[in-house]
Specification:
Aminopeptidase; seven-stranded mixed β-sheet; 30% helix; 30% strand; binds coenzyme A
Length: 168
């Protein structure tokens, strides 16, 4: 079993007041961040969208340090984005976010999951591989900013026991 983080966070559904902090994390994490309106749209208009944040327990008001967006369509979950604030990485937060989002998607009927990840993003690939995602295909020159390939990773079976352990 992996020793979990010393950073104490709650994983909870995203709320309107989180949008600004979520946008900041996104901009710090990606070369092509989502426009702020995209998170608002996902939160308020897209019924397929499941949005979660990781919020520090010790802060009042609680600082948001991680985010995950998943689209659940019939029996498939598509991980749209996941990011942890750079100052809080490698402390088990990404693992918890992913586990909570997958368990929630399972509850909503998903039985498989998929995502795209940059070929060079070894940290994210390691996160996905440890719960059973495998590379299914390559989408050549998928990313517009630098023409990098995307790896399409899929999870054919949800490892419920492991996910429950990771979710904490
Ligand atoms: C990918 C990301 C979300 C991981 O979040 P995190 O909170 O740092 O991850 P965790 O601490 O929960 O680590 C979970 C697992 O991921 C892997 N991992 C995380 N960071 C890693 C790194 N820098 N190098 C190698 N493996 C890493 C490890 O397998 C780790 O498991 P272990 O602790 O049992 O070894 C984070 O690095 C991030 O926000 N990156 C920028 C945004 C991004 O690339 N998102 C993915 C888009 S597809």
């Amino acid at each position: 079993m992996t020793q979990d983080t010393s950073v104490d966070v709650d994983i909870r559904p995203m709320q309107m007041e989180d949008l600004e902090q979520v946008g900041q994390i996104d901009r710090l994490s990606f070369s092509m961040p989502w426009p702020q309106r995209s998170f608002r749209f996902e939160l308020t208009q897209n019924p397929a969208s499941h949005l979660w944040v990781a919020a520090l327990r010790q802060d009042t008001p609680r600082r948001v340090v991680g985010v995950i967006v998943t689209w659940v369509i019939v029996d498939e979950a598509h991980i749209g984005t996941i990011a942890v604030h750079p100052e809080y990485r490698q402390a088990g937060i990404g693992k918890r976010l992913l586990a909570c989002a997958l368990l929630d998607a399972w509850q909503a009927g998903a039985r498989q999951a998929f995502l795209e990840v940059r070929r060079s993003n070894l940290a994210a690939q390691a996160l996905y591989t440890r719960v059973g995602f495998v590379v299914e295909a390559v989408r050549p020159r998928y990313y517009r900013d630098n023409g990098e390939d995307a790896l399409l990773m899929t999870l054919k079976e949800f490892p419920l026991e492991r996910l429950r352990m990771d979710a904490g």
